[in-house]
Amino acid sequence: MLRILLADDEPLVLIGLQGMLEWEKLGYTICGTARNGRIAQELIEREQPDIVIADVKMPVMDGLALAHACHEKGPLPVFIMLTSSEDFSYARRAIEAGVVDYLVKMDLTPKSLCDALARAAEQVNKERALNDTARTPSRTEMEAGLRTMQDRFLIRLYTGLIPDEEHLRQEMKGLELQLDGCLVAACCEILPSNPGMTSDQQLKLNLSCCRMLETTLGNYLPAHATGTDVLHFNVLFTLREEPPQGVKAFLEPLVKKASQIVYNYFSARLLWAVGRPASAPLSLSRRCRELDTLRVLLSEGEPILFAGDAENDATASKLQTVAQVKAYIRDHLSEKLTLADVAAVFNFSPGYLSQLFGRYGGGFVEYITEVRVAAAKEMLEKGDKKIYEIAEELGFESSFYFSKVFKKSTGLSPREYQQK
């Protein structure tokens, strides 16, 4: 409630003002009354009212002098002036004193007083908002603000939106980021144990995973995790120099350990695509683009892949081929996808495609099952299709076979999953 102080040298006016409105119902409370300006000034210092309704003419100190004295110390309280005349000079002086309204006693009504109070309350709220904005942020707020700016900067760096070294230096000022030495960027996907999580729950999980990883990895090297959407984030590793045994040999055990800790705490699995080392910050955008091929190859069976694994042309070509086959499978889930049929689309022999998928894709049949089950989960969560319709749309021979495959993969029947 807003606190109101009444100041007038006429007792009947004070009584009349107190009885004119149902103050409490309107969101106001009268914290005091005064018969002259000096007493009013003392009450203002003690009671800290938000609004003062004062008579212009009072003994010892008049209302305008009171408003001027208070206005010199700060914008609050807000003043509403009462007067017995319509003399414009009073109104002009009242405006100079920061008074928000000027009311003639003879014309005063509950409505005009309510309107004046509403304008005064609006001014009080504005002043409070300005004070909140102008106050010195706490250390926690400063740290949160710095973190937000660091994350925004890194996302722009990853996506190539920082054009040159000059812009890099300008944006780096004050960010407290260590970007010297050997830089390695990784893209990470979160696989929650509960597929029915809300967006808010996914966001909370993402933030928790990022902080847990930073804490765990921070025992060995600087690492900064930046969320890119609710189930994905990037991690920037900063090494003093490229390890003699290679980036993969150094980082892989750390990544595995951190992933296990995340799983122990949040029951969420992580899929990692780790890039090649960059010697300069502006090279990170190119390294991140190189990870696109790796990301589509990640699965629970192969949760960590390093770009260095695809350094030679032959391996890179095979990885690209598997990525293309996987994209074809995702686009044709409703069709009968046998090994021979898909191999024919790409002019391979079934044996070669099977070997290729076994080495770089986690298994042909396994991948099709994984993608179909994932798609089925989404459809079941939406709840707008019957189980037999989902089975038919995803290329299963029958709803019975669909249920069997789904339960083997998730431990629940489609109906149990949907109910859960």
From TrEMBL:
InterPro entries in the cross-refs: CheY-like_superfamily, Homeodomain-like_sf, HTH_AraC, HTH_AraC-typ_CS, Sig_transdc_resp-reg_receiver, Tscrpt_reg_AraC-type_HTH
GO BP annotations listed: phosphorelay signal transduction system
PROSITE patterns (alphabetical): HTH_ARAC_FAMILY_1, HTH_ARAC_FAMILY_2, RESPONSE_REGULATORY
Keyword Phosphoprotein: yes
The protein's role, per its UniProt record: May play the central regulatory role in sporulation. It may be an element of the effector pathway responsible for the activation of sporulation genes in response to nutritional stress. Spo0A may act in concert with spo0H (a sigma factor) to control the expression of some genes that are critical to the sporulation process.
Keywords: DNA-binding, Phosphoprotein, Transcription, Transcription regulation
Domain named HTH araC/xylS-type: residues: 323-420
One Gene Ontology molecular-function label: sequence-specific DNA binding
Highest rank taxon of the organism: Bacteria
Classification lineage: Bacteria, Bacillati, Bacillota, Clostridia, Eubacteriales
Protein name: Stage 0 sporulation protein A homolog
PTM annotation (4-aspartylphosphate): residues: D55
Domain Response regulatory: start-end pairs: 3-120
